[in-house]
Amino acid sequence: MALSVRLDPALEARVEEESKRLGISKSDLVKDALELRLGLKNPYDLLRQVRSGKPTGRTGASERTGSGLKARLRAKRSD
Length: 79
Hints:
63% helix
């Protein structure tokens, strides 16, 4: 479902900056904010799940994190 929302220029600029900082689309940023606000996503529950040692459903999410980070940093330096 598509939804249009009018934002004042200052808020729109903040959304733009934050989406760039996180490396996600503005749409994903807004969806995430709405899910948090509506109680559909709870950061505390995610933290408890991660700390419990139980699988999060993302196999390989924490594998080779160092090599991935190095590759991204090298790619940025070459720009």
